[in-house]
């Protein structure tokens, strides 16, 4: 797969990266969302739902498995909005020949997408052909998720073991987001015991 950029937005403070995909994924830049704070995720989900006029139903702590539901709903929202932004971006940069040229001039020479573009247009710049090629090869940035050791806190509900935060997050990844790469920043023993049980 051709890559637009060779760098990514790394893990930083939770607030810095919580909505990074929405800001940069349309440009082909990979980024990471931290799953540590489900309360913050729910607040940001409400904010973006209102901003983009998307129906919002609050997920309260009184609901069963509320942390898994909050994180899942937030990731679904980020994925949907990021994909919409990406489709809009593709339309904007392929309207005219100059739009296409301007887009590639802003990319570094190390970009594999730009290198292939040079080959495609070396003999002739057919706008329709280039537009079709670009729509086929341009990809949005990857949305990764991050788990840190901090999330391995006790969340007792009816004294059930499964409500430990990190177990909830593991269920989210494997039940809902198996195709999304997982960046693990945790060496917690309980996490790996739970991982073994899931296998």
Account of the 3D structure:
- The protein is mainly alpha-helical.
- It has one domain (1-199).
- Helix content is 51%, strand content 7%.
- It contains 9 helices and 3 strands.
- It has helices at 14-17, 20-24, 38-51, 66-93, 97-105, 112-120, 127-137, 165-176, 189-198; strands at 31-34, 143-148, 182-185.
- It has a 3-stranded parallel sheet.
- Helix 8 links the parallel strand 2 (143-148) and strand 3 (182-185).
- It starts with 13 loop residues before the first helix and ends with a helix.
- The relative contact order is 0.16.
Query: Based on helices, strands and strand pairing, what is the structural class?
Result: mainly alpha
Helical residue percent band:
40-55%
Number of strands: 3
Number of domains: 1
Strand order of the largest sheet: 1-2-3
Contiguous low-pLDDT stretches (5 residues minimum) are: 156-164, 182-188
Order of helices and strands: HHEHHHHHEHEH
Question: How are the elements arranged and paired?
Answer:
Blueprint: H1 14-17, H2 20-24, E1 31-34, H3 38-51, H4 66-93, H5 97-105, H6 112-120, H7 127-137, E2 143-148, H8 165-176, E3 182-185, H9 189-198
Parallel strand pairs: 1-2, 2-3
Helix pairs in contact: 3-4, 4-8
Annotation keywords:
7% strand; 199 residues; single chain; 3-stranded parallel β-sheet; elongated; 9 helices; 3 strands
Short description:
The protein is mostly helical and about 200 residues long. The protein is built from nine helices and three strands, in the order ααβαααααβαβα. The chain has helices spanning about 15, 20-25, 40-50, 65-95, 95-105, 110-120, 125-135, 165-175, 190-199; strands spanning about 30-35, 145-150, 180-185.
